[in-house]
Design a protein that fits this description.
Layout (H helix, E strand, L loop, with lengths): L7 H15 L11 H26 L7 H10 L9 E9 L5 E2 L4 E3 L5 E4 L3 E2 L5 E11 L9 E4 L9 E9 L7 H13 L7 H9 L6 E5 L9 E7 L8 H14 L5 E6 L1 E12 L3 H18 L5 E2 L1 H9 L5 E9 L2 E2 L5 E2 L4 E11 L3
Parallel strand pairs: 10-11, 12-17
Antiparallel strand pairs: 1-6, 1-8, 2-5, 3-4, 3-7, 4-6, 7-8, 9-10, 12-14, 13-16, 14-15
Length: 359
């Protein structure tokens, strides 16, 4: 039987009854008497102790522990919270031949996000030069979709506007507590072995920037002795080339000898929904959108299926009175209200929904 923390009034009643039976010989203890006041004081103290014990009990298990205690559980297994990473990209400087752009030169987005050049660059005979840049702030904020960066301070002989030729990517936030919690739970449920599928998943998730990972054993991949590991960001999009390379290097260093390993990137399939809901309010629409996003994050797998029944359940859990999926579009192909099935390394990613009112 699960423990239930008694309420403050229940504890007060127990202490008062004990006072009346042991001190007052069965007489009632007046509320504002010394004994009555002591009952209230003791009840408050005991109730707080019960609260501490309930809180302490939650910290024993990674599934319910608070942030700092999740880190403590992780440390027991040598699991560290993954650090934030800086986005990197390539831009083009146009200008006068021979002008040198020194390392550390600052450029910025229209929103004021600063990037700096990684090395000295000299404008060549074509009047331009490619330069690698790194965001000054860590996290996904650096994965900008701007088309241009701009010199913060003018540089003689160089155009202020620098086109982005390779979009900055690879920026990742500090690993969230829930992501770390999931890795700890995965580790406790799957003790290290000699290269099982769960081992490869755990190893891949230890790489900064890898948010999701799946292992394809030999029988599902390319035959005996082969292992395929599919990786993605937390949002089920392909990781940057640098993160992919980091994952390959790390997995090659920990995999068992003899295994032929290949690291694959996911191929996102964009999924859009047309849904009739009641009531059709902005708040309900936002709730349904959030539920569908979480459904795809939790259930989408390479070559897997997201069932229409699960989609409907997610929508109905969002506070709607009535709802019906009218159409599902995958990569611009209208499928109607059916299960979403993908193959290979494709994952079904949520990209939006349109809402209508029942007619």
């Amino acid at each position: 039987m699960a423990f239930s923390r008694p309420s403050l009034s229940e504890i007060y009643g127990r202490i008062k009854a004990d006072m009346e039976s042991r001190i007052a010989n069965g007489s009632k203890v007046p509320r504002f008497s010394l004994a009555g006041i002591l009952c209230a004081v003791f009840a408050g103290a005991v109730w707080s102790l019960y609260g501490y014990l309930v809180w302490l009990g939650r910290q024993f298990f990674p599934e319910s522990a608070d942030d700092e205690y999740v880190d403590a559980h992780a440390a027991r297994f040598g699991i560290m919270r993954k650090a934030a990473a800086y986005a990197e990209g390539i831009i083009r400087f146009d200008g006068t031949v021979g002008v040198v752009i020194l390392a550390g030169r600052e450029v910025q987005t229209t929103g004021g996000l600063i990037f700096t050049t990684d090395a000295d660059a000299t404008i060549g005979s074509g009047g331009s030069i490619a330069a690698a840049v790194t965001c000054s702030e860590s996290g996904i904020v650096g994965n900008t979709r701007d088309l241009y960066l701009y010199l913060v301070a003018p540089l003689t002989g160089v155009a202020t506007e620098a086109p982005i030729t390779t979009a900055p990517a690879g920026g990742t936030d500090l690993e969230s507590t829930e992501e770390l919690r999931a890795r700890v739970i995965q580790r406790t449920a799957n003790p290290p072995s000699s290269g099982t599928a769960s081992d490869y998943v755990r190893w891949a998730l230890e790489v900064s920037g890898v948010g999701r990972a799946w292992c394809l054993p030999a029988e599902l991949y390319k035959g005996a002795g082969t292992v395929g590991v599919v990786i993605s960001t937390t949002e089920l999009t392909p990781v940057s080339a640098q993160i992919h390379s980091d994952a390959v290097d790390y997995l090659e260093g920990v995999r068992p000898l003899g295994a032929v390993l290949t690291v694959e990137d996911v191929m996102p399939a964009q999924v859009y929904y047309s849904i009739s809901i009641s009531p059709n309010t902005v708040a309900i629409q936002n709730a349904v959108t959030e539920a569908l996003q979480e459904l795809h994050r939790s259930e989408a797998t390479p070559g897997g299926t997201i069932y229409l029944s699960h989609i409907s359940a997610a929508i109905m859990s969002s506070g709607v009175e009535n709802a019906e999926v009218m159409n599902i579009v995958v990569d611009s192909v209208s499928l109607g209200p059916i299960d979403i099935e993908v193959t290979g390394y494709i994952v079904a990613t949520f990209h939006g929904a349109t809402y209508s009112t029942f007619t």
